[in-house]
Amino acid sequence: MKIAVVGTGYVGLVTGCCFADLGNEVTCVDVNHKKVEELRKGVIPIYEPGLEEIIKRNRNQRLTFTTDLKKAVETSELIFIAVNTPQGKNGDVDITNVKAVAKGIARHLNGYKIIINKSTVPIGMGDIVTQIIQKHGPKNASFDVVSNPEFLREGSAVTDLLKPERVVIGASRLSAAKKVSEIYEPLHRPILITDLKSAEMIKYASNAFLAMKISFANEIANLCDKAGADIVQVVKGMSYDTRIGGQFLNAGLGFGGSCFPKDVAGLVQIGKKNGYKFRLLPEVLEINQDQRKEFLKKVYRAVGSVKGKTLAVWGLAFKPNTDDMREAPSLTIIPALTAKGAKVRVYDPVAMPAAKPYFKKVTYCKDPYEAAKGADAVLLLTEWNEFVQVDFQKLKKTVRRPIVVDGRNVYDPVHMAELGFVHHGMGRGSKTVLL
Ligand code: UDX
Ligand code: UDX
């Protein structure tokens, strides 16, 4: 199929490249000239495992990059909108970019097209895009608008696209939905075809549910700290119940990234606009923010006043396997520490270039040990493998005090004690060692 993907951000780029890999002819469009130039040369603006190989395999054959929306629209039968929909005022979803792209597509329509919303957009956006195309497109324009939300996790976006647990397609006309589903048929995964608004809602409901699981685990973790239980054991025990499952129950610093915080806030606003006041979701967000504070309290308890102390921060990105800093816990934790006079030494395997604009008063280091040099405590914020498999003997010789505040519960408290480290986890209150 001939496909255009508008927006070469995390979602658009992965989507376009994977569709090309599946044998389609794909034109990726972006307004950012520099980005397009770089992509043409094979320079990828983001860190995403597996993406580089796919681009290399398909570039200049089935995969092209352009700023020319007109040409892309004219030569494609399916047009995906994958531009960013950032958080606007009061948590509202900012749909300016989607509207602008819809207008642009309308102006260049030259025959029947299917316009597909891939970006996360408020419920009812399909209708808005339809109205924009009717208003700005040619008279009697022939088109369908379809919703095909993305469920891509950064760091595993390529796998998520090529091995999705489900594909959701919402449309007003079955033939349009079926056409879009043809792209995904080679993947042999469940495809749900439904109406436009239900598809749009599925995306929000899924992300809000996952975010709720994380906040639930974090609240139980906070109680574990006080009551003397171990959240890791608790979640393990819960997870054997298939009605609960074990995923997205890792307690720690809470969720960040470009989706969960924005989508939960967005759904609250969508509720308000539809005359429904969510009670659960605002709490999910508040609990999430409070986790950062809980972590800071642990740091203060562990080292006392941080003024003049050296603190090593391991991990800056909002999660491992990405260089994305959006809503990363490091963005609140590091400034809080430097404001109190701490000397902060940081290391992240890939996110340091992306982090530089955010943190001026820190020392960037070349590896975890260098960051830990003379440290009064090591603070783990992102659970990169490199930190999980650290050489503790080497670390012990580097730090000033063997204290680890483990924001992601990656280390075993008993093992850490054996190694001679004082370990502070999130919800690891159990003091009982079974012999
Ligand atoms: C995506 C989705 O679009 C968003 O709805 C979802 O909730 C999260 O993921 P993302 O891919 O992360 O957003 O956005 P970003 O990395 O910011 O990239 C967006 C791209 O669209 C940029 O390259 C930007 O230049 C481009 N763009 C933006 C256009 O080409 N045209 C525009 O009018 C606006
Ligand atoms: C998310 C969705 O999972 C994906 O389907 C898509 O809709 C885009 O948004 P992403 O934001 O890339 O993906 O990352 P994800 O792996 O879902 O993690 C989100 C945040 O939750 C991260 O900050 C992560 O550290 C945190 N998290 C995740 C936890 O704190 N505990 C967990 O158990 C799982």
Write the layout of secondary structure elements.
Elements: E1 2-6, H1 10-21, E2 25-29, H2 33-41, H3 51-58, E3 63-66, H4 69-74, E4 78-81, H5 96-107, E5 113-117, H6 125-136, E6 143-147, H7 157-162, E7 167-171, H8 174-184, E8 191-194, H9 196-227, H10 231-239, H11 260-273, H12 280-303, E9 310-314, H13 330-339, E10 343-347, H14 352-355, E11 362-364, H15 368-371, E12 377-380, H16 385-388, H17 392-398, E13 403-406, H18 413-418, E14 422-424
Parallel strand pairs: 1-2, 1-4, 2-3, 4-5, 5-6, 7-8, 9-10, 9-12, 10-11, 12-13, 13-14
Antiparallel strand pairs: 6-7
Bound molecules: uridine-5'-diphosphate-xylopyranose (2 copies).
What does this structure look like?
The structure is a single chain. Helix 5 (about 95-105) runs parallel beside helix 6, helix 11 packs antiparallel against helix 12 and helix 12 (about 280-305) packs across helix 13 (about 330-340). Strand 5, helix 6 and strand 6 form a beta-alpha-beta unit. It contains 18 helices and 14 strands. It folds into two domains: about 1-195, 3-Layer(aba) Sandwich (Rossmann fold); about 195-435, NAD(P)-binding Rossmann-like Domain (Rossmann fold). With about 425 residues, the protein is an alpha/beta fold. The strands form two sheets. An eight-stranded mixed β-sheet has the order 3-2-1-4-5-6-7-8, with helices on both faces. The termini are far apart. It has helices at about 10-20, 35-40, 50-60, 70-75, 95-105, 125-135, 155-160, 175-185, 195-225, 230-240, 260-275, 280-305, 330-340, 350-355, 370, 385-390, 390-400, 415-420, and strands spanning about 1-5, 25-30, 65, 80, 115, 145, 165-170, 190-195, 310-315, 345, 360-365, 375-380, 405, 420-425. One uridine-5'-diphosphate-xylopyranose binds near residues 151, 152, 210, 248 and 319. One uridine-5'-diphosphate-xylopyranose binds near residues 100, 119 and 258.
